[in-house]
Amino acid sequence: MKMKRRTTFILALLLSILVITLLWQLNQNTSSIEPTVNGNIVQVRSFHLRSDSTHLKTSTKGSVFVKGEHGQFEQIQIVAEIEIDPLDWGGVAFYIPDHWQVSSITSSYQGNQLTLIPEDYISIWKTSGKDASWRTMVEVGRDRSYVPTGGGTGTVMINLIPEQISMSTSESIAIGIEVGSKEENGKRMMGTDSIEVPLSLKEGL
């Protein structure tokens, strides 16, 4: 009889230990998920550009995030707040360096108006010219027929990936940005004000 009670007690103890172990492992699995902040971000560059050379109130500001690992460029993300003057037909343009391609674009520009579609105000242009400084252009709120698009505000996120599997650390690249438009002496001009945002893995954050 004593042997039977002892066996029952041991089995109950083992069962309790098993239940406690399972509950502990379950708790560990649910609490082990932690958010990653700036994973693989090796460089951040801020920018701010206004159409100061004109009477227009067009501007953009934001940051460029460079992701990389083992001395290679892996992804570039441009996050820009945009404001375009109602009378501006030049809008905002981002010039993408050679050997990079646009993988996705997310935009809220003009999205606060129910009758408008954000993607209608974004266009991507490419050039095959060998002497061109830039191969791809992402234009926001720009009308090449010189008609103002109505202006507006919003946020645009542009994701870039390299055409090649890896990019050398010795290679420095730049993102070109321009804003505004004007007509002077009968000539129309897009991109009245511009900057370049230099990027290099060597420089770090």
Say how many strands there are: 10
The helix/strand order is HEEEEEEEEEE
User: What can be said about the biggest beta sheet?
Assistant: 5 strands, antiparallel
Shape: elongated
Ranges where pLDDT stays below 50 over 5 or more residues in a row are: none
State the helix count.
1
* Class based on secondary structure composition and strand pairing: mainly beta
Helix content: 10-25%
Q: Average pLDDT value?
A: 82
Q: How many angstroms separate the termini?
A: 74 Å
Compute the gyration radius: what is it?
27 Å
Percent of residues in beta strands? over 45%
Major sheet: arrangement of strands = 1-2-3-8-5
Structure description:
The protein is mainly beta and 205 residues long. It is built from 1 helix and 10 strands. The strands form 2 sheets. A 5-stranded antiparallel beta sheet has the order 1-2-3-8-5, with no helix packed on it. A 5-stranded antiparallel beta sheet has the order 6-7-4-9-10, with no helix packed on it. It is elongated, with a radius of gyration of 27 Å. It starts with a helix and ends in a 6-residue tail after the last strand.
Key words describing this protein structure:
single chain; 205 residues; five-stranded antiparallel β-sheet
List the helices and strands and how they pair.
Layout: H1 2-31, E1 41-50, E2 59-69, E3 72-84, E4 92-96, E5 100-107, E6 122-126, E7 136-140, E8 152-162, E9 173-184, E10 187-199
Antiparallel strand pairs: 1-2, 2-3, 3-8, 4-7, 4-9, 5-8, 6-7, 9-10
